[in-house]
Structures are given as C-alpha cells and as structure tokens.
Write a structure and sequence with these properties.
The complex is a heterodimer of chains A (about 475) and B (about 900). Chain A has about 475 residues and is of the alpha/beta class. Chain A has 13 helices and 16 strands. Chain A has a single domain, classed as Alkaline Phosphatase, subunit A (3-Layer(aba) Sandwich). In chain A, strand 15 and strand 16 form a beta hairpin. Chain B is α+β, with helices and mostly antiparallel strands. Among the domains of chain B are: about 100 residues, no CATH class; about 170 residues, no CATH class; about 90 residues, no CATH class; about 100 residues, no CATH class; about 160 residues, Jelly Rolls (Sandwich), CATH 2.60.120. In chain B, strands 8, 11, 12, 14, 17 and 19 form a six-stranded mixed beta sheet that branches. Chain B starts with about 25 loop residues before the first helix and ends with a strand. The chains are: A alpha/beta (about 475), B alpha+beta (about 900). The interface between A and B is large, with 107 and 123 residues.
C-alpha cells in the first residue's frame, strides 16, 4: 500500500484524532497535498545551528521613549540647557515637528551608575536599576526612519512600508512552535491604542498567513471568537463538533479529499484552544508573591499583566511574544505628552514589571533560553521641541532617528554589558553603531537561524527579514 | 498554493514527464535560473567572472580561460568541470548539484546546448486542438487539449457532477453566491440539453456576477477605504469600486477595461466614468504623518504603480528591477525607470487632501491627472532604488525584449495601456485567461499567476493556455464569453470526487482528470451564510458599510473614528461592501485569507487554521446567520423533523441530505433538544441572537447630545469646590447652555459649538429620568480634551485621550449600579489637555442604554426550535459548506 493511501485510510479512522489529541496540530496546509503527507508548518523545525534562545519576548514601547531621560546620561547637555541648537546639527535635517532653531535641553532627572557593571540608569527606573547586571544596554541604536509607522515597520519587518513579514512570523516560519495548542506567535497590546503601524507589525506579509501573530486580548475574548456564543453550552459545543466530525467523515468517504481530514483536525484544535488559551491567559492563580513582584492585578489591562502573560506564554512553548505598549510619544504639546508630567508615570508603569520579568525568568531557569528585548522605534531629540516654532507651557522632545537606546537580556546575550555610545550631547552615535537590520540579524542568529539564509521566494526574489543587501550584521560582541 | 514552496525539492509540481529527452524549457532553464543566474545572469552588477549563462552567446564565452559550454562536448565544457570540481564546486554556496542535475546538463550540452526563448515571451500561436480517442467526451476545444493529455497518461476523465453540485459550483464561481431558489428550480426542472447553458447564461447576466469579479479585480487594485500608514484616514474611492462592478456587468472588453483604468483621463474628452476608472492607481497609500517628505511617498506610489502594472497585466516581477537589473528576466534597471517615466507625470503629490479629485454629486473621489506640459517632471534612474540618489535621465519607453511601441503612439500612460493590450503583447491575454481559469479551477494553468517570467512555473497545458489566450483576443477580449467557454467545458463539469489511485497519481489535479475542490473565499463564506439565512441584502453600490464586528478592533492612533455598526440591510450587504481599513481590516475576513489592501494580491493563499474554525463556529455574525437559517427552515419546511433537516440542507448546500447525513443531523437535534430542556436563558438567546448583538435596536437615550435633542445643561467654568458631582449638589447658581461646548482659535464650522468654553476646566450637570432598568450603558463622547463623568456622584467613565468623533465609553459597573429609577444626575468635568493656542477644546456627550431582554419560561417547543439553531450552526461549519466542489 502506498504511504498516501495509508495516510488517507488512517485519517478517516476515528481513533486517529483521539490518538493524536495531544499535539496533532492538524494539517494546516490547504494546498500542499501530494505524495508527501501534508506538513504542519507550525511543527517544530530544526534550526540552522544550535540556538542560544528558544523564545523571544519583545517589549516595544510605541511612540519611542526618551533615551535621554532613561538610559543615555548626558551631563554636558545640561550645560547647554536653553541655548540655541548650533546650525550644523540642523542643516539638511528633517524633523517631524521642530521648526526653525530649537533650544538644547538637558534631562531634569538624576542618573547614577547601577550594579556591578556601573551602567548609568535614570532615577525613573529604580527597579530596573537593580537588574542591570542581567542586561546588555545598547546606547548606539540608529534608524533611517523618523515617523512612527515606517520606523516601527522597519524595525519589526525589515521594510519601512507595509507588506513585509514581521520578526515573529519569520521566527515561527523558520522554527515552528513548541506548543500546538497555542499560537506560536502571540501579540499583546497595551496602553489603549494599537501601535501606529497597526496589525501589519505582526502580519505575515508575503509569508503564509498561518505565521501571522495572534493577538491575545486581556479584555473580551482573549483570542477573537474564542468563546462559545451566547446560549451555546459547552455540552452543545461538544455535540456540534461530534456531529460535524461525523458529517465531514461522510463527506470525505464520498469525495476522498485529504483536505477534509485537515479541517476536522483544525476544529478539534480550535476546541482545545478554547480551553488552553483562557487557561494561559488567566493570571489569577499565580501566587501573591508573583503578583507583588510584577505589580499585577488580575482582570486589569496593564503592562504588568502583559509581562506576566509573556512569561506564562514562553513557559508553555510559545516561540515569539510581542508586546506593544502605546503612549511614549512625548512631544510636549500637552500634559500627557510632557516629559515632566507624563514620562514619570509611564516609567513607573513599566519599571517594576520589566524588572520582575527578568527576575522571574531567571528564577525559573528560563532566562538563558528566552531573549528579552526592550525599546522604541527611534529616539528623541536632545533639543526641546518647538512645535509651530514657539514654546508653550509643556516640555518634550521630537523624533530623533540618529540615536536611541534599547536593551536585551537572556537568550545568549552577554549580561551586564554597556554597548556603544553617543556624543556628549547624545545627538549622534560615535561608537559601535547598531541598526535595526543588525538587531534582526542578531535575533535570528540567537534563535539558531542564519539571517542570510532564512528566506522566502516572493515576486521572484528571495525575501529576507534583513532585506536584500547583506548590510545587517550579527552583533558578535553582544553574545555571551 | 504558495505553501507548495514550503516543501523542499518540489519546485515543479507536474507529474514526471513521460518522455526522457532533455527539454530546455522544462529541465534546463529552471535549473540554470535556480542555481546559476543570480551570479551569471542578466544583471551585470552582480555578474561574476564576466560570464553569463542566460544567453547562448554568453554561455559559449570563456570563463577561466575555457569555454563555459562547448556544444556537443560536455566533457570539455567548463560548466560541467566546475560543477564536478571536488574542491571548488559550482555553485559555490548551497547544496551541490545532484548527479541527476549534472546528468541533465551533460545530455543537453551533448545535444548541442540549444537555447529557446522563454515560452511566455513569444506571441501565442493558435494551436489546433489535438485529436482524441474518446470523441464523445469533449464539449468544446478546451476538453480536447485536456483529454489528449489524459489519454497520454492513461487516465480517463471523471464523470459529470450531478445537477445540484453543478448549479452550486457554477453559481459560486460566477456570482460568488449560492444559486437562488428560482434559478435552481428552473435548472432542475429543465429537461432540455440546453439546460446547463441556460443556467450559465443566467448566472453571467446576474448583477451578482459583476460583484463577484469586481472582488477578484479589487485584490489586484489593492483597493481599501483608507489611506494607509499611521493615520490611515478614510478616503472616498468606492466610486471606483462601483465602476469596476458596472464595467464587468456591462462586459466591457478587457482592452477597454484596461485603457480606462490606466489612462481614462488621457482619452479625448473623457466622461466622468472614464475618470473614475483611473482610481485603479489612486489606491496607492498616502502618508500624512508630521514631517513626512512628500516626495518620498510620491516616489513609493509611482514605483508601486509600475510594479503593479507589470504584475497585473504581464505577470512580470518588474518591481525587482527598481534597485538593479532583474536577475532572471529581461528587465534592466534602466527600463524600470523608463516605465516609471510613464507614471511620473501625475499630479497627485502625496498631499493629505488626496487631490486630484472630481465631484460626483455629493461625493468627491480620487482620479488621475497629468501635469500640464510645461510642468512635467524629468525622470532619472534611482541608483540602488533610492530616490535621493538620482542617476542618468531617461525617457518613457517600453521593455525592449517585447514588441515595440508604435511610432505614432503617445509617450504617456495611454500609449503604455494600448501597448499592454496590443495583440502583439505575448503576455497580457495569457495572464488574464490564466487568472480567470484559476478562479474557476482553483489553480492556474500557470500556477505562479504572479510570475510568467523565467522563475515562474511552466504551464501544465501550454497549448490550452495559448488557445484560450488567442480565443480571448479573437473575441475582442470578451470576458463573459471566455468564462462561458470555460464553464461549458466537460473539464469544468467533472465531479470533484477522487479515488485513491487518482489521488496518488495526480494529487494536485494538475492533469484535470477531476473537478476542482477548494475552500471558498472569505467574502463568499460570509455571503453564502447570509444568503442561506435569507438575510443577504442585494443592494448594489454605494459607500462602504459596517456590519457587526467585535469591540476593540479599531484602536487607531490619532484617528477618532470608531466602527459604528450600520443599520437595517446595510448590516447584511455582500462582503465587498464592508469597510476596509488597511491597518484594521474586518477580522473574520482576514482570518479567511482576504487581503488588507496594502499590497497588490495576485492570488490569495488559502490556509486552513483553527482560527478559521473559531470564527465560523463563534463569530456572532455566523451565529446570527444560524439563527435565521434555522427559523427560515422551520418556516418553509413541511411538518416533521426530517422535513426541517432536509430544508436546512437545501437552503445551505443546495441539495437534499443523504440518508446517513439526515440520520446524524436528527440525532444532533435530539441531543441538543435534551440539553436545552428547561434552560430558559439558552433557549431565548439562541432564538433571539440578533437582539444580543444589536443592543442599539433596543436603545434608550437618557441624555442626548448636540446631534439630537441637545438638552440644556447647567455649567460653570469656575471651580465649584468639593461635592459638585453629587446628586444632591445645588447648581442653581451655574449658567445654562447647550452642547457642544468649546473653543478653537479658528473655530471650524464642523465643530458646531453652541456654548463658548475657553477656560482650562468645565463643569457640567444635568438631571434626567430613568423609567426602567437598562443594560449596556454607555456614553458617546466627542472631545478635544479629557473628561470624567459621574452618575449620581459615582465615577462612571473617564478618558485622557482626545478623540475626533463621538467615541464610545462604557459606563463602569459602579456607575451603572448607581443609576436608579426616577430622577438621576449626570455630572461631567472636562479639561483641555493642550495649551490654549495649540489646538482647541471641545465637549459634547450623550448617555445611552438598552432595554434588557426578558426570557420567558422554558418550553419543550422552544427547546426544539432552539436546537435547530444549534444544528444550523453545525451545518454552517461543514467542510462541504466551506468548500466549492
């Protein structure tokens, strides 16, 4: 008997589903049928080489927090406070809102060296300051996009325009997922708004749509359409699925299409997800010590809750967890965009949870295999923004693509590392310049994927996360 | 389909060729393209060792002092030597060539190394349909091509599908809807041999035909109702969508259809409709973020237009040549910018106002318009694709590997459009008939619909493709006629049931020995459910609509617009009328692989995921369809459960159930009836599902806003001190005024401010009566500022975000609990959050609730009726329901 024929017979047997109920994952492939059994594209796949990280948690602060208030200490800039920005820093530059000649502005916050590495971190992040020895801080990030949506897209998809595949989609495309009852790429959005570039930031672009991120929500259904409809009891749902399977099997006997078996499997997986997703999303059963550590409150929508969820998800084998936290666009055009009034609130909101995430991963032995990344899409100007050419009562900074700070921890990254530097006023990177392409190459490398090899044929080109040229580099100095 | 590329080593999906002779097109070119041409191809920048293998002259040239290929002597050919070199093998990266691959190359070289022009770049010649042994089977020429191949492979066609299946198949394919009962009845009762042809004619004449094929075309046009990028504001371009529907229903010839969309504005005295047609290329995205360089995004739009034109009409990956000469196909870097020059003269300038536009009555929509002759732009090559890095200047010109632009043709978009639909063009007709074929047969004759170049798949039936292409041109690009020819073929009418032996021999049905079976498109999944339920609106045209979608989908930065569910039949329009916001597309459609409008989508990739199962099982829209489908079946069926189940099958699957199916459905109904016994709430919910998802239908306005009754509020701008929000506070000293409250330095007319508010804070109070208990309480707030609201002194809602439109804020559970029968007090504090000069401030709001639903006592009859809703929900999820077969 041919392998295919055997497969067909096997799949029409009831016991097939029961036997595989743990990780069947189903045959996702609607089209790939043939002499080979349809492959599940989310089944774990071998990496190109031994990985350092199994999972990634990416904490993206949409709007872009000010590096000058949080990580990039520039005492010299304080000396220039209120002085006009020298013309050579403005020539040939475009800003989102700055007009004419703005004033330089030092930070109003105190910095001090923290931890054994002596990393300078602002007073706004007291909890994070206690875990800096676990972290590599990169103060030499640059990008070539100065608006939110293109800069976010460039960082997460490798292209400033819509249509390319996101980092998480590439990771699941390359490696599959370890848990077939949960999506391999989960997205958690906080702060009351989607990030500026919307759902394209976790889209699959030209990759098959099974690799797109699945947004898990902390209010309403955790995954869209997860709950049974009003009036449909759990027993009724089970009854409908049993009938559905029997009727589909009758159909398959008649039509002989392997696709029908794939659909039966998907419905069973959906049924299991109805249990497994709410289970992993329910943080109420975590011990008090954990809630204290993160500052979590079950049932609330918060960055803290999302951090704890991220830990729970990677613990269950989810490959890529992408957080977006909106509200960091501190232009100073209103109170809620003011670096004196609002930035401290925002910093307080993330400080404890992100420190707790690192500690918690460490105490569970997960930090070694989980790469945590924090950052925005660009930086903020060392100049005070003068929207419309004048100053009002609020204080802020404009978009600045020439320098910003991100940090990474765990997953094969050197702990306690201070990497790269900007000039004395934080305008340009002067040492170890890092681009989004370098970050993409490094993330893939840590996952055991060769960033130059990982590609997908689309429109006649081998599309890659790092783009068509080989300018993206793996940051070997950063690796443990 | 593209999943196929996930499987390694299966680039060609055709069954192995019967003959053993080496064929350049089939065996050699794909091998060279895949393994050699990236470094030894047309792109001179990336070419290594000054040696190229894409032309015969190049291949016979020297590499490393030896001839690359010596025709007739593989042993002396450097290509073979290097491929077998143990130390420095070619290609230098990736796996080595296999023994079989080297063997093929040797055989080809020993046979003289003949090169042939890429099959798709030569003009199609009309082939004579081949002779076949079984002369009774063919209905038309298509079938002779198909059958000749089957006979060669020792296969026989599948029998014709039964009439129910045929009618559903043809209706879904041609109109995107299941057959209407009248059409079905006429077809089943028509004994004439012309019955099937009459069915096809009726379907092609239905207005639904235009809607169905418009959706296919809109994927290519990257149609959406917003501008894209961060703000993703609304844009009114639905008149273009309506133009496409009308053009298709009027059966506008494809050449005319093309010329109007690419260059309608350049025709002598174009009509209004001709201008609307140019919306095709106005679907590019627009960025209105602060500080954006307009030229950067204008350039991106023009490049997109060049790439999309190349892909849609010629199946060429022209976009590859924007940075460098195409690595595989004859499209040089310079030629890309010569094409760019055609599109570089349009007036649209990536301004937020979306100009140029025309007014059509009340509506203003986007059109194309060229700059006046004295203001035309010069076009330069962009080095490495970067518009900031201009190189040599170029003039508009077509690709030199193809036919020439006639000497008297205008050097503008009109000239280019005519060149595309010239009968000399080897690709346009092939690409279009292949696209139509793929929508009817699931897969194109050329599977890579998006790529007819050397990297694409070879056609499964090259002669059939050329016959169809020449037939299409012979009938003057008549789309309905060519579709009818396809649908009338015996090939199309075959049953899709497959026996294991055939499945094994031809798993992907590339030989066409059976009918196609594939999952329905996202819109069809929706439309079919609504049609079966009797809910589907057949209204054509008009602004996009907002059917029900889950809360919290539209969270768009800096854009206060919210999703407000449409009223009446607009809830049940066909899927192509659903509002498409690029950054937040309609979720159930995306789940079923519909495109977002960000990119030109040549073919949708069909996936099969658990999220689709969840959507069809649990999406309230699907449940609403189940409710109405069940109630309709109960209404229309004769007495008895078997009759009801039968009616459900007929309404949804357009066929009666088989005995085993009927038995299983009745068993489910009995089980569900038992489960629902005594459950009043569940019975009620299942039978009144729509009332749950449209609480607005039960809405009571407690305090209206300025759009409605605009009641008088008590207000003050002086700090009233503690307790101002409490129910018993005395606000007699406050002033009286109506919404909207606000101030703006320029005071835009649409703000409709009735009461001036220019201080930092504003306090408002109003009394209202609540006659009955309400649920689903919410505020609709329009504010440029922040606010907090209190009900009888209890905090009920607050926001620090300003939103442009009337934005919905749910009343907090505490606030809702504070509401009591009789007199209540709503108190609101508003504050501006910007400096006064920097923007403006605005406040207006209403408070609304819904009358709760009151389930009656449970009854046995209700349990049985509600159980039919459960059955309908099940049937809506059947594999057969979701499949065109």
């Amino acid at each position: 008997m041919s392998p295919l024929h055997e497969l067909l017979l096997q799949r029409t047997r009831r016991h097939f589903l029961e036997r595989c109920s743990l990780g069947l994952a189903g045959m996702f492939l609607a089209e790939a049928r043939g002499a080979k059994a349809p492959e599940n594209p989310l089944a774990p796949k071998p990496p190109h080489f031994a990985p350092k990280a199994k999972s990634v948690i990416y904490l993206h602060m949409a709007g872009s927090p000010s590096q000058l208030e949080l990580f990039d200490y520039k005492p010299e800039l304080i000396n220039y406070n209120g002085k006009e920005c020298p013309p050579h820093l403005l020539e040939g530059k475009r800003f989102a809102f700055i007009k004419g000649v703005p004033q330089m502005m030092g930070t109003p916050y105190q910095f001090a060296p923290r931890g054994q590495a002596g990393a300078y971190v602002s007073e706004l992040l007291p909890h994070f300051s206690q875990v800096v020895d676990e972290v590599a801080i990169i103060r030499s990030m640059t990008t070539d996009q100065f608006n939110h949506a293109p800069a976010q897209l460039f960082l997460h998809t490798g292209s400033p325009r819509f249509g390319a595949a996101s980092m998480g989609a590439w990771a699941t495309y390359g490696l599959g997922s370890e848990n077939q009852d949960l999506p391999g790429f989960v997205v958690l959005v906080g702060g009351g708004n989607n990030p500026d570039a919307g759902k394209s930031l976790w889209g699959s672009g030209f990759l098959p749509s099974v690799f797109q991120g699945v947004q898990c929500r902390t209010q309403g259904d955790p995954v869209l359409y997860l709950s049974d409809p009003e009036g449909m009891t759990r027993t009724l749902r089970r009854d409908t699925l049993d009938a559905l399977r029997d009727l589909n099997e009758l159909q398959q006997q008649e039509a002989g299409d392997p696709e029908t078996a794939a659909r039966i499997a998907q419905y069973e997986l959906a049924y299991r997800m109805q249990v497994s997703v709410p289970e992993v999303m329910d943080i109420s059963k975590e011990p008090d010590s954990i809630h204290t550590m993160y500052g979590t409150e079950p049932g609330k929508q918060s960055f803290a809750n999302n951090c704890l969820l991220a830990r729970r998800l990677v613990e269950k084998g989810v490959r890529f967890v992408q957080l977006f936290q909106w509200g960091w666009d501190h232009h100073g055009s209103s109170r809620r965009e003011d670096i004196r009034y609002d930035l401290p609130h925002k910093a307080r909101m993330i400080d404890r949870p992100m420190a707790a995430l690192i500690r918690d991963l460490k105490q569970r032995g997960l930090l070694d295999q989980t790469l945590v990344i924090w950052g925005g899409e660009f930086g903020r100007t060392p100049m005070r923004e003068n929207r419309g050419g004048s100053y009002g009562q609020f204080v802020g900074r404009d978009h600045h693509p020439y320098a910003f700070t991100i940090w990474m921890a765990g997953g094969g990254v050197k702990a306690g590392l201070n990497y790269g530097a900007t000039d004395e006023i934080g305008y340009y990177v002067v040492d170890k310049k890092v681009t989004p392409r370098d970050i993409q190459a490094t993330v893939l490398h840590l996952l055991g994927l060769d960033p130059y090899r990982l590609s997908y044929l689309y429109q006649g080109l081998n599309q890659r996360l790092i783009g068509p040229t080989d300018e993206g580099r793996v940051l070997h100095d950063l690796l443990a | 389909m593209r999943f196929w590329t996930l499987l390694p080593g299966l680039a060609l999906c055709l069954p192995p060729p019967a003959a053993l002779a080496v064929d350049f097109q089939r065996d050699i070119r794909p091998l060279l393209a895949k393994r050699c041409l990236a470094c030894h191809g047309p792109d001179e920048h990336s070419r290594q060792a000054n040696f190229r293998l894409d032309t015969r002259d190049g291949a016979l040239g020297k590499t490393g002092g030896h001839a690359g290929i010596v025709p007739g002597d593989s042993a002396r050919s450097r290509v073979i030597v290097r491929a077998q070199d143990p130390k420095r093998p070619m290609p230098p990266a990736g796996p080595r060539l296999t023994a079989d691959e080297i063997d093929l190359l040797k055989k080809w070289i020993d046979a003289g190394a003949p090169y042939e022009k890429h099959w798709a770049f030569g003009k199609p010649e009309r082939p004579a349909p081949p002779a076949v042994r079984d002369a009774r089977w063919p209905q038309n020429e298509i079938d002779r091509f198909v059958l000749a191949r089957l006979e060669k492979e020792g296969l026989t066609p599948s029998p014709e599908a039964d009439r129910h299946t045929l009618a559903r198949r043809a209706a879904l394919d041609l109109t995107g809807l299941p057959p209407e009962p009248g059409v079905m009845k006429a077809f089943l009762g028509d004994p004439s041999p012309k019955a099937y042809e009459r069915l096809i004619d009726r379907l092609l004449a239905s207005p639904a035909y235009g809607e169905r094929w418009a959706r296919v075309w809109l994927d290519l046009a990257r149609y959406a109702d917003t501008q894209g990028y961060e703000k993703d504001n609304r844009r009114t371009i639905w008149p273009y969508r309506d133009w496409v529907i009308r053009a298709l229903n009027d059966n506008l010839p494809f050449d005319r259809f093309t010329i109007l969309q690419l260059a309608g504005d350049l025709l002598p005295s174009p009509s209004e409709a001709d201008l609307v047609a140019t919306g095709f290329h106005r679907n590019t995205m627009t960025n209105t973020e602060g500080g954006t360089d307009d030229e950067e995004f204008r350039d991106a739009a023009v490049k997109d237009r060049v790439a999309v034109t190349g892909q849609v009409w010629m199946g060429l990956t022209v976009g590859c040549a924007q940075c460098h000469t195409h690595k595989y196909d004859p499209i040089s870097h310079r030629e890309f910018y010569q094409l760019y020059a055609f599109f570089n003269q349009t007036e649209d300038n990536d301004k937020p106002d979306d100009s140029p536009t025309i007014k059509l009555g009340e509506t203003t929509t986007l059109v194309m318009r060229d700059l006046p002759a004295d203001k035309q732009r010069r076009t330069r090559i962009h080095e490495r694709g970067n518009f900031l890095n201009p190189g040599a200047e170029v003039e508009p010109a077509v690709l030199s590997a193809f036919h020439e632009l006639p000497a008297d043709a205008p050097r503008n978009r009109l000239g280019l459009a005519r060149w595309l639909v010239s009968k000399e063009n080897p690709l346009t007709a092939r690409v279009m008939v292949n696209r139509l074929w793929a929508r009817l047969f699931g897969t194109g004759l050329v599977e890579s619909e998006e790529d007819f170049g050397t990297q694409g798949n070879l056609p499964s039936h090259p002669e059939l493709l050329d016959w169809l292409a020449t037939e299409f041109m012979r009938t003057d690009w008549d789309m309905k006629a060519i579709l009818k020819t396809m649908a009338m073929s015996a090939t199309y009418r075959q049953s899709s049931a497959v026996a294991p032996a055939l499945l094994e021999k031809d798993p992907r049905n590339r030989l066409l020995a059976r009918g196609a079976r594939f999952r329905l498109d996202a819109e069809v999944v929706r439309d079919q459910a609504l049609a079966a339920a009797g809910l589907l609106s057949r209204k054509l045209y008009g602004p996009p609509v907002m059917p029900w979608q889950p809360e919290g989908i539209w969270m768009v930065v800096y854009n206060g617009e919210s999703w407000i569910t449409s009223d009446g039949e607009d809830r049940y329009r066909r899927g192509l009328y659903t509002f498409l916001r690029r950054t937040s597309p309609y979720p159930s459609m995306i789940t079923y692989d519909a495109p977002t409008g960000e990119l030109c989508t040549i073919r949708r990739i069909r996936t099969n995921t658990p999220l689709q199962a969840l959507a069809s099982l649990n999406d309230p829209v699907s449940m609403e369809a189940a409710q109405h489908l069940a109630l309709r079946a109960l209404r229309e069926a004769g007495p008895g459960d078997a009759a009801r189940a039968t009616r459900l099958f007929e309404l949804l699957l357009v066929r009666p159930p088989r005995a085993a199916e009927l038995e299983r459905v009745l068993q489910l109904h009995r089980k569900a009836t038992a489960e629902l016994h005594g459950r009043a709430a569940e019975q009620y919910k299942l039978l009144h599902y729509d009332q749950f998802i449209y609480p607005r239908d039960r809405e009571v306005v407690l305090v209206d806003d300025a759009r409605g009754a605009a009641p008088a509020w008590r207000y003050t701008m002086d700090d009233p001190g503690e307790g101002w929000q409490n129910a018993n506070y005395d606000a007699q000293s406050w002033k009286t005024g109506r919404g909207q409250f606000g101030w703006h330095p320029k005071m835009p007319a649409e703000w409709k401010v009735a009461t001036n508010w220019d201080s930092e804070f504003l306090w408002l109070r109003i009394e209202f009566d609540a006659a009955q208990p309400l649920e689903d309480l919410k505020f609709l707030v329009r504010t440029a500022g922040a606010f907090e609201a209190f009900l009888n002194g209890v905090p009920a809602a607050a926001s620090l975000l300003d939103r442009n439109g009337y934005y919905e804020y749910r009343v907090s559970p505490e606030g809702a609990a504070a509401l009591k029968p009789g007199r209540n007090v709503l108190a609101v504090k508003a504050s501006r959050i910007r400096e006064k000069e920097n923007g403006g401030q605005l406040m207006d709001l209403s408070l609304r609730g819904a009358v709760p639903l009151q389930p009656g006592a449970p009854t046995a009859e209700q349990a049985a009726r509600a159980a039919w809703v459960v059955v309908a929900n099940t049937l809506l999820n059947l594999d057969e329901t979701l499949t065109r077969r």
